[in-house]
Design brief:
Distance between the termini: 21 Å
Shape: globular
Helix content: 25-40%
Largest sheet: 7 strands, mixed
Strand content: 15-25%
Bound molecules: zinc ion
Number of strands: 18
Structural class: alpha/beta
CATH topology of the largest domain: Quinone Oxidoreductase, Chain A, domain 1
CATH class of the largest domain: Alpha Beta
Radius of gyration: 21 Å
Length: 393
């Protein structure tokens, strides 16, 4: 099969002791400590095969580019991959994707050939402490399509049936092309769903929600908060095009933080002390969290979805007096996929305005170059052509 493939050289840093498991599996726990001189190309990968009776073979149709994909092809000053996460090379990237089932193992009952599906990329072990507590996205032995297994930016993929969620109801309501687009957005939306619902326990209908950062994760949070019945959805984002998208997805008010003080803006809206849920989707927590703390409502919740690479100082006494709480999450497993698909199928949510550019697989390197510029909310790679040529059903 063809794929958008990341390669790199194995050159473990002196201070990094490779484990036997890493050497045997080829999956390193910290790519930034082992993998050097990463490169990206459209290349051949072995055809995936059904390795268990519960496996499903998928013709990949739409695959989103994520910020973490850029970390895989960006080097530090010494040439090491910047991604501080598990990785294995070579690998076809893409962990936000949809496709069509073309073959199923003998025991598969959840999907059948011809079904359109959104595919969960994370593969949980099912037996570690995190998995046994239901926190599968935090699995301690996680494999991950697009990181340590070939992913969605390739012509084919294989996944266990439990990771394949039918888009049938979305296709019946909106058509097949729209269903593939929705399918590629379910993963980032499920990351936000995990934080808002599964970790933080949601908010009450009519509550005030603020979202900092209208990148892909922030935009899905805006759409979800609106569809879930927030009274106000406030959005803080410097890029005007992303503020516009946030408004399309349900933001009631937006603010450019380069033009003034966020606290003053909250004051002007009567929102100071009345923010029931604050979602940080920026990765700039040291700037954002101090803006949230003075504005949080009694019992308010902070949901941290951005990856803060630097420590964040928090004035906890203020959160204590407000009986506030802070919630963290990473990844999409845990129930978000069927819920977000159902919201689309019911017409309560449409995240597809987030898609701002499309590329064929053969132009995948150009797609990543465009993503690096940072202006686009979501770029989609279509492994079988932008017009979805080759759809079976
Ligand atoms: Zn596990």
């Amino acid at each position: 099969m063809r794929g958008l493939v990341v390669s790199a050289q194995w050159q473990p840093k002196e201070e990094y002791a490779l484990t036997a498991e890493e050497e045997q599996s080829g999956r390193v726990k910290l790519a930034n400590m082992v993998l050097r001189y990463p490169s990206l190309a459209v290349a051949d990968r072995p055809d995936p095969v059904l390795s268990s009776e519960h496996d499903v073979l998928i013709r990949n149709m739409a695959s989103g580019i994520c910020g973490s994909d850029l970390y895989m092809v960006t080097s530090d000053d010494d040439g090491y991959m910047k991604l501080p996460a598990p990785f294995r090379v070579p690998v076809a990237i893409g962990h936000e994707y949809s496709g069509q089932v073309i073959e199923v193992g003998s025991a598969v009952t959840q999907v059948k050939p011809g079904d359109l599906v959104a595919v969960e990329a994370q593969v949980e072990c099912g037996s570690c402490r995190a998995c046994l507590r239901g926190l599968t996205a935090a699995c301690e032995q996680l494999w991950d399509r697009g990181f340590t297994l070939d992913g969605g930016a390739a012509t084919l993929s294989v996944a266990h049936e439990r990771h394949c969620w039918p888009l049938t109801a979305v296709a019946e309501r909106h058509g097949e092309h729209h269903a593939y687009d929705v399918g590629a957005l379910i993963e980032p939306a499920s990351v936000a769903y995990n934080g808002i619902v599964n970790r933080a326990g949601g908010f009450r209908p009519g509550d005030t929600v603020v979202v900092f950062g209208a990148g892909a994760i922030g935009l899905t949070a805006v759409g979800l908060a609106s569809a879930m019945g927030a009274g106000r959805v406030l959005v803080v984002e410097p890029a005007s095009s992303k503020r516009d998208l946030a408004s399309t997805l349900g933001a009631t008010e937006t603010f450019d933080p380069t033009t003034g003080d966020v606290g003053d803006w909250f004051d002007s809206l009567g929102a100071t002390g009345a923010i029931d849920m604050a979602i940080d989707a920026t990765g700039a927590g040291s700037a954002v969290i101090p803006q949230i703390v003075p504005a949080i409502a009694a019992g308010g919740k902070i949901v941290s979805l951005g990856a803060n690479m630097k420590p964040v100082e928090v004035d906890t006494i203020k959160l204590m007096f407000r009986a506030a709480s802070v919630h963290f999450t990473l990844g999409h497993l845990g129930g978000g996929f069927p819920a977000v698909i159902a919201m689309h199928a019911a017409g309560q949510l449409d995240l597809t305005p987030m898609i701002t550019s499309r590329f064929s697989l053969q132009d995948g390197v150009a797609a990543m170059d465009l993503a690096r510029e940072g202006h686009h909310a979501k770029i989609i790679i279509h492994p079988h052509g932008i017009g979805h040529e080759g759809v079976i059903a």
